[in-house]
Write a structure and sequence with these properties.
It contains 6 helices and 9 strands. By secondary structure, the protein is of the alpha/beta class. It has one domain: Purple Acid Phosphatase, chain A, domain 2 (4-Layer Sandwich), CATH 3.60.21. The N and C termini lie far apart (about 45 Å).
Length: about 260
């Protein structure tokens, strides 16, 4: 389902030939939603797109199929139309301005185009408090901390998110959410079950680019991509990780 490589829009008047990495990503995108569709049987599906729906044009070069924000938004909309059709509810969270433009940017444009749920008066928002089947979620793209990206510091970033959120709600005499979902850093991280809030950071659905390799981000050189599925029944939740690992760099042998 969704956009096939042959339908990628052209902005230079010529033929576009997707790279091996782009085809691999597209195949994993279809595989992810096929898995979600299988798990959905007999259930109502609610989808939250947690920000950075497009890459934006701030990393120009050969790794981008196009530098046109409008083309990126069109492709994102085409890829998400089948998802919107499958989901009973779908929400858009705003990402990083350098990727998606300031304010109601790409998420608002795509959300309006495909008919996602309104959050207040808009089709996107910086945060979302969502109650699904009695389980209370809090979604936001930015975790507010850069911790937990390194293999030996995993868990620290999401512990900060969980405890700060819990204290903030409690100090104002409000019931904290059960689950906090964050993204942005492209590296999966989560909290132990002993904390009062379960906080989790999702991987991205993109491979490490030249910038990530330059600064030594932990989504390189072998990137993990994918998303999370929460199965909810009788007010209880169970999380499934639908993750995919890219191949390592090709080895060149010299005899």
């Amino acid at each position: 389902m969704g956009l096939s490589p042959e339908r990628f829009p052209l902005d230079d008047g010529g033929h576009y030939s997707p790279s091996r990495e782009q085809l691999w990503l597209l195949a994993r995108w279809h595989e992810f939603w096929d898995s979600v569709k299988t798990m959905k049987r007999g259930r109502q599906l609610t989808v939250v797109v947690n920000g950075d729906i497009v890459e934006g044009g701030h990393f120009p070069g050969s790794q981008l199929a196009t530098a046109s924000p409008e083309t990126m938004e069109y492709v994102a909309g085409e890829l998400l139309k089948p998802v919107r059709k499958m989901a009973a509810k779908m929400f858009m969270i705003r990402g990083t301005p350098v990727h998606v433009k300031k304010g109601p940017g790409a998420e608002e444009i795509v959300g309006r185009a495909i008919g996602t749920e309104k959050i207040g008066r808009n089709y996107s928002a910086v945060e979302l408090a969502l109650n699904v089947g009695g389980v209370r979620f809090h979604f936001s793209h930015h975790p507010g901390t850069g911790g937990g990206k390194l293999p030996w510091t995993r868990g620290t970033g999401m512990r900060q998110v969980a405890l700060k959120l819990w204290m903030n709600y409690r100090s104002h005499d409000h019931q904290p959410p059960d689950v906090a979902v964050r993204s942005h850093l492209h590296v999966f991280d989560d909290t132990p079950s002993s904390l009062p809030i379960y906080a989790v950071r999702t991987p991205a659905f993109c491979l490490a680019n030249e910038f990530a390799k330059k600064v030594g981000a932990q989504n390189e050189p072998i990137s993990t991509i994918g998303g999370l599925v929460f199965l909810i029944e009788d007010g209880k939740w169970h999380m499934v990780k639908l993750f995919y690992s890219a191949a390592p760099p090709r080895e060149i042998r010299v005899e």
